[in-house]
Amino acid sequence: MKYFEKRKLLSMLLMTVILLVNLMTIQVILFMSQKASVAWTNLLDSYQSYSEDMTVQESVYHERSEDLDAEPENTGEVIEEPDVELDDTNVEPEDRPSPEKMDEDGSHQLENEEANTVRVVFLGDCMMADNMARALDKHGMEYTLEDFDSLLKKADLIVANLETSIGTSRILMDKTFPFQSDPIYLSLFEPYSDKIVFSLANNHGMDAPLSETMQALDELGYAYVGVGENIEQAYAPHVIEINGVSLAIFGASQVMPTTDWRAGKNKPGMAEAYNIDKLMSYIEPWVNKVDYTISKIHWGEELADHPTSSQRVLEKELRNLGVNLVIGTHPHVLQAIEWDGEKQFTAHSMGNFVFTTSHTPVANDTAALEIVMNREKIHEARLHFGRIKFGKVYSLLEDGKSQRIIDRLNQLSHSVNVEDNGNLTPLELLR
Predict the structure, then answer these.
(1) Longest dimension (CA), the chain
(2) What is the mean pLDDT of residues 336-340?
(3) What CATH number should be reported for the domain holding residue 257?
């Protein structure tokens, strides 16, 4: 009898253990399912927002719930926005003052007090692939830049970072997010085609065959720097004289996915800025030939507030060489601005400009940098603030809407003060 009781007890214990194991297994499965669901959601968000090198490139037309003038909330949830055709900004166009209206209302504006001055506008990262292309298809080529049209038309020269290859072949580099924009989307810049210079020295400028990109730009009459049929062409500046002021514009990159992109003696490619001595050897002959040398450098760490040590080293070397303006891109956010002396100015990162909406709010804050200079000195500098949303750059001219950008830049910059109207004043003049 005891034998059967023991077997019964053992059977009950075994059943209990099996039941407990089953319950634990179910709990583990449920937990892992939840984790997998969260991981999948995060993976989708990451795919939408970042490229292979953490570039803010692939946002869909969904954005966090802040309005253009609201402080961004630090939440992990992505809120569905209406379709791109519906209420893009909750701001009616007639209520959003244009640059012309602002000037008519008596706000401060940059004026050519002397006849022999040149007005240059610098823009950050521009690309017209994927969701940007869809926005332009839906809204037209004037859509993205209409708020900044008068500023760009008023400029004597525009310098921008073209962070995409150009063409239709779809022969793309084997990387996670290669970009090739159809030449038709260059119509976005057609009103300024006679005065815009693109730098192609960046980590997407050769995503498709370089020859195709250069042929498209050549046929459409767009000037560009940073790439060429050989090393001499890649490092060659775009030289221009405007109103008696001569400028030489260079493009080079410290961000390349492969060394194969480097231009060689008989090899098409890109100007690189890893080798500082090489870069300076091409810039130095022009320092005393023109009134202003301008270095457009793709460098730094993406989404970082501050320049990296390598940025600082390169900037110092360029300044010591006598380079006048150092204009950076790649971090996808605005970084520190420095203005030292009468003819030396650095914008470490101009952020995004013609770009898709980012899930990182600070990457949607942007500005166009306007500099007026004569042969002797930089006269004035001003930031025209904007907010990127649904493939459009909305001008932030209303009181308070650009305050968070102003406050951030004043915290980051050590030699200039950013005023409420965007004017930049060297701190040495305020002491």
Answers:
(1) 116
(2) 96
(3) 3.60.21.10
